[in-house]
Specification:
Length: 256
């Protein structure tokens, strides 16, 4: 029993550090898949060995502990302290989620690359586009992206990072990843979709930093967060997942 508890704690702790929980990444990938052009979908499916993007969306989180992928350790996030933007914040020497997205895009565009390398960078791009839109992956460096910012959510002690990775996703709606993707990918005019997809990875990164900083300002540490908080912020969670998926589709449509 003690061993099972320890494993549960280890899993919960690991989930705190590595981006949207599996559900958020899965939903982002499903939305992207739906908005692929026919040509892009054919090439993506071929590179992914016949599987869809959701299947690989959390693959990058499972690489921890595998020495071959140590170079990815800091690629899941980018920190910016209060008063900083992404551009002015100190950079992680081995890369961050913004440089990760850019590198994956370049590797996929490289016509001289082989299929197995391109498949790897495709799986990574699917994941890191989710992380880039996950607000606490652009949190303060001083509290490790909200991991050191203690809050109480529905009577349970947690931290801001974990709350935004999965607590809010699970608290907002009792939906599966497939339901999340289906329900938040609302009908909209093509022009509105284009607007959501517009911009560059650098602009998306800066948007997430601004969002993250507003979340700190709107999250008191001395009161128990509950339905008010869910009601206030769940539209934001939905929008981040939707934008991550739509923008991922745009990138892949342009590359393939
Ligand atoms: Zn991640």
């Amino acid at each position: 029993m003690k061993k099972i508890l320890l494993i549960c704690f280890a899993l919960a702790a690991a989930a705190n550090v590595y981006g949207w929980g599996e559900k958020g990444h899965n939903a982002t990938a499903r939305i992207a898949q739906k908005h692929l052009s026919c040509g892009a979908e054919r090439e993506v499916t071929r590179l992914l060995g016949g599987y869809n993007m959701a299947y690989w969306s959390s693959w990058a989180d499972g690489l921890r502990g595998d020495g071959r992928y140590n170079f990815l350790t800091t690629w899941h996030y980018a920190n910016a302290d209060e008063g900083q933007t992404y551009a002015t914040a100190p950079k992680a020497p081995k890369g961050d989620v913004y440089t990760a997205v850019v590198e994956c895009m370049e590797r996929l565009r490289d016509k001289n690359s082989n299929d197995s390398l391109r498949a790897m960078y495709l799986k990574l791009l699917i994941h890191f586009m989710g992380d880039m839109h996950c607000p606490m992956h652009a949190g303060y460096a001083s509290d490790r992206g909200g991991n050191g910012y203690q809050v109480t959510f529905r009577g349970r002690k947690t931290n801001l990072h974990s709350l935004w990775d999965s607590g809010l996703v699970d608290g907002a709606h009792v939906w599966s990843a497939a339901e999340w993707a289906e329900n938040i990918d609302r009908r909209m005019r093509r022009r509105e979709r284009r607007e959501l997809q517009a911009g560059t990875p650098l602009e998306w990164m800066e948007q997430t930093v601004v969002l993250s900083h507003s979340i700190y300002a709107g999250t008191p540490q001395d009161e128990s967060l509950s339905w008010d908080y869910i009601n206030r912020f769940s539209p934001l969670v939905e929008e981040q997942l939707l934008e991550g998926g739509l923008r991922l589709a745009r990138i892949l449509n342009e590359i393939f």
